Amino acid sequence: MKTNVYIYILVMAGVTYLIRMLPLALAKKEITNPFIRSFLYYVPYACLAAMTFPAILSATASAISAAVGFGVALIAAYREKSLLTVALLACTAVFIVERIMEMIPV
Q1: pLDDT tens digits in sequence order for the chain, 106 residues long
Q2: The pTM is what?
Q3: Phi and psi at residue 37, in whole multiples of 5°?
């Protein structure tokens, strides 16, 4: 059975367009409910965290270096550093911990 990749791309484009277009078409007036507004405010952050956290734990050679990188990223983010700074600090921390762990015989 031969499949056409262009059909898959067309379906994905249509679904993506509908997901983005339907809320605009269905919500005619401004949302004033404070619960819904706060829910919609935090949805992007929750989705980003749900996608990023598992990758943090599995992207390094050990759980120790992942935990150190995560801790450094949390501290830098709490101190309101930029996204690039947080990422660079976390990567540097993971790199240093990985090199130290290589030198220590197990």
Answers
A1: 577 899 999 999 999 999 888 888 887 788 888 998 899 889 888 888 898 888 888 889 899 999 999 999 999 999 999 999 999 999 999 999 999 999 987 6
A2: 0.61
A3: -65, -45
